[in-house]
Task: inverse folding
């Protein structure tokens, strides 16, 4: 049994997305004590920002004419796609930044999509693979809130993971992670505690699901 875990938080310490991801991972691990985990921390160890363009142009260049940078980018794309394909289950944890997708996560998806195995029309080698997506947001964006609709990250990530790659996806969302850090949000202390508890509960549930789905 094997898990691939991707973390996109830029924080070395105190990451809420990593903490929820840890609950999923630890719950999965309890049922799979001998399992292997491959990790990629794209927030702390970002992919080279030139890799995507080099990989795109490499795909339009005959192999024998590719530059060393293009070859390196193609190899990196192959490595990150190998990580996805080799794992039996996948865990991805991503914060909301500036109302949008973490650019590290976008760079990772973009690079993965240059690999011929995931390219448009190549079929869906990831279809049906069990996966959990953890998303955290400092604020809250639910129906009726002043910023309803301002989360331009989660929908895009789901589009890629569920619709483009066909993963069998379950999601844990935790909002108001900035409560306790930003005094302007103090009035939401109780609500934030409930949201946190609910997210942790769901993370345990999804960790168990990953463990059972991966053994089928
Ligand atoms: C540069 C930056 C931009 C952020 N932008 C937003 C935002 O647009 N909306 C929001 O709700 N939270 C925003 N946050 C708060 C993060 O989503 C929140 O702190 C989250 O917990 C970060 O994930 P982590 O705890 O895993 O590091 C931002 C945080 C940082 C550092």
Result:
């Amino acid at each position: 049994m094997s898990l691939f875990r991707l973390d996109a938080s830029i924080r070395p310490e105190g990451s809420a997305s990593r903490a929820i991801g840890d609950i999923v991972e630890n719950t999965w691990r309890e049922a799979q004590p001998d399992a292997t985990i491959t990790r990629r921390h794209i927030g702390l160890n970002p992919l080279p920002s030139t890799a995507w363009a080099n990989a795109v142009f490499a795909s339009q260049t005959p192999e024998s004419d590719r530059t060393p940078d293009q070859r390196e980018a193609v190899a990196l794309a192959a490595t990150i796609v190998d990580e996805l394909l080799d794992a039996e289950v996948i865990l991805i944890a991503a914060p909301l930044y500036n109302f949008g997708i973490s650019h590290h996560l976008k760079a990772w998806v973009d690079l993965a999509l240059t690999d011929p195995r995931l390219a448009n029309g190549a079929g869906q080698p990831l279809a049906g693979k069990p996966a959990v997506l953890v998303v955290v947001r400092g604020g809250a964006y639910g129906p009726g809130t002043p910023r309803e609709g301002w989360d331009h990250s989660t929908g895009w990530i789901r589009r890629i993971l569920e619709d483009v790659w066909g993963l069998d996806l379950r999601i844990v969302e935790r909002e108001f992670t900035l409560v306790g850090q930003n005094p302007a949000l103090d009035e939401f202390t109780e609500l934030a505690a409930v949201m946190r508890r609910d997210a942790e509960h769901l993370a345990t549930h999804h960790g168990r699901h990953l463990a059972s789905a991966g053994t089928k």
